[in-house]
Amino acid sequence: MNRPELEAEVKRSSSLPFQRIIRGDDVDGYLAEAPELPGCITAGANPMEANVMLQDAIEGWIGAALKAGENVPEPAAIRVSG
């Protein structure tokens, strides 16, 4: 897969409806994770920042998986409804 193909696939895959969990508080900050992508965890000062950071983490996770020749799992929402 060449770079443009990789970037297109990362963009496509990262737009899928992966589950997002954001928890925390304004004092300690917020932890955000995409549990369907093992180890895809980040943090932010507020829920909005945590969500933006999680999108970046999802894109990085998917890019690393594709570069390593691994499959990106389908989100549960697609597996259940599709």
Description of the molecule:
This protein has 82 residues and is α+β, with helices and mostly antiparallel strands. It has a single domain (3-70), classed as Double Stranded RNA Binding Domain (2-Layer Sandwich), CATH 3.30.160. Helix content is 48%, strand content 17%. It has 3 helices and 3 strands, in the order H-E-E-E-H-H. The model has no long low-confidence stretch (mean pLDDT 94).
Keywords:
82 residues, alpha+beta, Double Stranded RNA Binding Domain, three-stranded antiparallel beta sheet
Number of strands: 3
Radius of gyration: 14 Å
**Tally the helices: what do you get?**
3
Shape: elongated
SSE succession: HEEEHH
Unreliable stretches, pLDDT < 50, 5 or more residues? none
Structural class: alpha+beta
Helix percentage: 40-55%
> What is the residue-mean pLDDT, rounded to a whole number?
94
β-strand percent reads 15-25%
What's the structural domain tally?
A: 1
Sheet with the most strands, sense and barrel status: 3 strands, antiparallel
In the CATH hierarchy, the architecture is: 2-Layer Sandwich
> CATH topology, anyone?
Double Stranded RNA Binding Domain
Distance between the termini: 27 Å
Write down the CATH class: Alpha Beta
Main-sheet strand order equals: 1-2-3
Compact overview of the structure:
The chain has three helices and three strands; from the N terminus they run H-E-E-E-H-H. By secondary structure, it is an alpha+beta fold.
